[in-house]
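step=predict obj=SDR family NAD(P)-dependent oxidoreductase n=255
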Amino acid sequence: MTDTAAEGAARPLEGSYALVTGATRGIGRAVALALAGAGAHVVAVGRTAGALEELDDAIVAAGSTATLVPLDLKDGPGIDRLGGALFERFGRLDVFVGNAGVLGPMTPLAQVEPKEWDDAIAVNLTANWRLVRSLDPLLRLSTAGRAVLVSSGAAHKARAFWGTYAVTKAGVEVLARTWAAEVANISPLAVNLVNPGPIRTRMRAKAFPSEDPQTLPTPEELASAILPLCLPSFNETGRLYDFPTRSLKEFPVPA
């Protein structure tokens, strides 16, 4: 293999543009760095400017560049403006990873406060719909657009006290599957889901405070599995990659 070919194999997203939500910590940060390592210019979306700047330093160290977007995903009009701004600057988008999410209240459904419910729906589900609405035209302009939305095993289980989170993730799965069906055969855009399973994140620690995080896979391990779903060579669509079993599943997924 020539040096040029080897470099291309090592950086298969060279010259591409990839947007990641929730990019400042945990899974989102790890995915942003994996995409940067593969050569992508990363559009990093997060709420905290300082954390975005720290990520920018890490992306530069990985040999790539970034556009930092401080944005609260409950800001629907802000999401709407994002697509237009990216079109003006880049003319297209090649990868979208919808990772941002909140756990929401771990309480019986009858005791969930309306604001807690609304906030979880806004961040986990409505924001992803608005991102689809804003970014779909840009992804269709790519020769190999790839979208990956992060789901959860909770979407397939009716576990007590997990109702708010589970409902949002079930909604995300139907959202992604519907989007995949709508673009199938009319666009090179591929839309898929990933179930991370137990990962060493702040959200996991909040849900399972007595669990030893050292027994769990790291966000970086998960990111290395998500990266192939973002590559032009990955042609499957409307599927769910289940990280715990390292398998690609078709729907419906059994409980």
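step=describe
Confidence is low (pLDDT under 50) at residues 1-6.
step=end
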